[in-house]
Amino acid sequence: MPDVTKLIEREHRQVEALFDSFRETGDTGVLTKLCDELDTHAAAEEAAFYPMVRDDVPSGKKLTNEAKDEHGEARQLIGRIRRTSDPDHVVELVNQLEQAVNHHVVDEEEEMLPSARRALGEDRLVAAGSAYEAAKARALG
Q1: What's the mean per-residue pLDDT of the chain?
Q2: Residue 141: pLDDT band by 50, 70, 90 thresholds?
Q3: Local confidence band at 1 (pLDDT 50, 70, 90 cut-offs)
Q4: Is the pLDDT of residue 30 over 80?
Q5: From CA 129, how far away is CA 131, in angstroms rounded?
Q6: In angstroms, rounded to a whole number, what is the distance separating the alpha carbons of residues 105 and 26?
Q7: How many of the other CB atoms lie within 10 Å of CB of 113?
Q8: How many CB atoms lie within 10 A of CB 137?
Q9: What pTM does this model have?
Q10: Where do the domains of the chain lie, and which CATH numbers do they carry?
Q11: More confident residue, 96 or 2
């Protein structure tokens, strides 16, 4: 099992590819997959990774509070996307979601993940990777 930071980074790349695919095709199936992936990713981070960061990483409380706020913003946009039938409005909302997600990814990859790697050590990160995968499976139902 890879460490949780590598899993998170891999999923960030997958989400970026889904945004690209939707932008190229406008396929609503891709959009559904994108929204579902973002929902499960956020739920797994909050359940399996953020508590460890909050408690054991310097400035962890600040980092996780900011990240949870960003998740809240993404969830609101996802809800609006799921309720919108106007294709032009959907594209506008997806653009807003992509900007919000990109901001979140930069924050995590430049601050939270490097801080976690320094503070937590490989064994804890690998254990968190297993917990993250289990939380993601639970979120998927």
Answers
A1: 96
A2: confident
A3: confident
A4: yes
A5: 5
A6: 23
A7: 22
A8: 11
A9: 0.94
A10: 4-140 (1.20.120)
A11: 96
What six digits make up the tokens of 75? 């969830």
Q: Is the confidence at residue 140, as pLDDT, over 90?
A: no
Nearest of 101, 78, 72 to residue 8 by alpha carbon: 101
Yes or no: say if 61 and 67 are a contact pair by the CB < 8 Å rule. Answer: no
Q: Show the tokens assigned to 38.
A: 């973002």
Nearest CA among 96, 46, 47 for reference residue 74: 96
DSSP state string for the chain: ---HHHHHHHHHHHHHHHHHHHHHH--HHHHHHHHHHHHHHHHHIIIIIHHHHHHHSTTHHHHHHHHHHHHHHHHHHHHHHHH---HHHHHHHHHHHHHHHHHHHHHIIIIIHHHHHHHH-HHHHHHHHHHHHHHHHHHH-
Phi, psi of 125 (to 5 degrees): -65, -40
Please give the single-letter amino acid code of residue 126: V
